[in-house]
Amino acid sequence: MSISFSHTYTELPDRFYSAQAPSQVPAPELLQLNEELCDELGIDLDWIRSEQGLGMLSGNELPESAHPISQAYAGHQFGNFVPQLGDGRAILLGEIDGKDLQLKGAGRTPYSRGGDGKSALGPVLREYLVSEAMYALGVPTTRALAAVATGEAVHRQEGPVPGGIFTRVAASHIRVGTFQYFLVREDQEALQELTQYAIKRHYPDAESIIDFFKAVVSRQATLIAQWMSLGFIHGVMNTDNCSISGETIDFGPCAFMDEFDPKKVFSSIDRNSRYSWENQARIAHWNLTRLAECLLPLLAETPQDAIPLVEEALEAFAPQFEDKYLLCFREKLGLRTASESFINQTLSLLADHRLDFTLFFRNLTRVAMGEDSDFFAGHEKWLSEWKSYGPADASLMQSKNPIIIPRNHRIEEAITAAYNGDFSYFHRLVKAFKTPFQEQAEFADLETPPREHEKVRETFCGT
Ligand code: AMP
Ligand code: MG
Question: Does the C-beta of 154 come closer than 6 Å to ligand 1?
Fold first, then answer.
């Protein structure tokens, strides 16, 4: 049975998007299908595995109910405002079970500017792996439905590479940048419609626009705390990559850190460390301030009346972030009452000795479970202080400290193998990342940090 899309976004005015059919690709091949997610969304597995299913996932032949569009948005990229970005390589097919189904890398759109609208296979596999790992780790995120090879080469810095299409499922693709697109055009009517749409779709309990804004602030605050408690660096927290629904979106030059360095960045173009691990809360607050600017004209007749409302809402970011951040680290330490200073002391220890973030908490969990670990050799003073606050809650620690995270060198290894025609590494990672908190002897090799020559120092924008 074919897929049946609904369409609420295209009921918004025409200036919100452009109708755009995907490009044709020569030899599509289904590399990976997320069957659990298909089930969740009510997508028929026989159909999606059929020729018509592949037709949709490759953009070659869309089901009748699809209304393909590219969405318009603006955004601050590394702090610089770009009034028109938009889906330059993404095409939204419609909504299913209230969620967006989008093809990434399906060809040029009116927003492509100088780009080809396509995607190399590497970033497709990377987003598949990292977004699904994020989901398994319990963090709000867009999901991966499928990865397809197009059979066509795309031209990138490193030369011609195989092309791919990624099918993304998101609560929606409304970003802070979507609001900015209309603010810069002084289109108050569109801002009002977009806000009402976002409330209806994501915050139905909000009774007013300021309530809506407070709820967005709250979701961002908890999201960033969750990222940080996993050593995650998003890498490109531009306002166009900041989802109104509170999901993690756009996995380009992101990473789960190996050795802990709060100042670490991964994007090759992030020269000022704007998006380092430790800056992420500050940046989220900055992005939310940009959203607040868009809402000002809707909140009161004059900015003077509106500003105090958003200021109050923005002030709630820090305490909410800190509460969640402290809670996450207390859970990781297995100590529900650990002080902020002990948490800071722990992170300083990690940073001073460049300890592996994930292994540290993984080994601490082992100690809490009464197992032996020589990980803390040389750090006995810290360990005995941790013990002095005990007993630590070992089962809580097991449920919060992952054993397997998507380490960059493993992702790179899987991409390199895929470029050589071997997808077994990729498929193995898909499987391993599904249950990050479980001991899995067959994946023990994936627990270890990279050796010196395996280290990935920066990743490039995922085009
Ligand atoms: P992102 O890096 O995904 O946040 O993208 C930033 C902006 O660049 C968005 O407007 C994208 O649609 C656009 N973009 C990225 N890669 C391409 C590409 N290959 N072709 C066209 N537009 C692109
Ligand atoms: Mg983006």
Answer: no
Whether residue 95 lies inside any domain: the answer is yes
CA 352 remoteness from chain centre: 28
**Residues 275 and 163 reside in one and the same domain:** no
Q: Report whether residue 269 contacts ligand 1, using a CB cutoff of 6 Å.
A: no
User: How far does the centroid of ligand 2 lie from the alpha carbon of residue 305, in Å?
Assistant: 33
374 is catalytic: no
| pLDDT given for residue 463 in this prediction | 52
Distance 34 CA to ligand 1 centre (A): 24
Amino acid at the residue 122: G
Residues 61 and 135 in one domain: yes
Residues 159 and 236 in one domain: no
Same domain, 20 and 164: yes
> What is the 448 CA–ligand 2 centroid distance (Å)?
30
Structural domain that includes position 384: 174-401
Q: Is 12 helix (H, G, I), strand (E, B) or coil?
A: coil
Q: Is the peptide bond before 22 cis (omega within 30 degrees of 0)?
A: no
Ligand 1 probe mutation, 73, 76, 89, most atoms within 8 A of CB: 89
Tell whether 200 and 82 lie within a shared domain: no
Reported as a single tens digit per residue, the pLDDT across 22-73 is 999 999 999 999 999 999 999 999 999 999 999 999 999 999 999 999 999 9
Last residue of a domain, one of 148, 170, 192: 170
Are 146 and 32 contacting, i.e. CB atoms less than 8 angstroms apart? yes
CA gap 42, 50 in Å, rounded? 16
Of the three residues 115, 139, 170, the one that is the final residue of a domain is 170
Q: Tell me which residue has tokens 């803390």.
A: 376
Q: Which pTM does this prediction carry?
A: 0.97
According to DSSP, residue 234 is labeled -
Query: 116 CB less than 6 Å from ligand 1?
Result: yes
Residues 105 and 201 in one domain: no
Q: How far is the CA of 441 from the centre of ligand 1 (A)?
A: 39
- Is there a domain that residue 432 lies in? no
Ligand 1 close to Cβ of residue 250 (< 6 A): yes
Ligand 1 site, residue 241, Cβ cutoff 6 A: yes
Structure tokens at 244: 């109104």
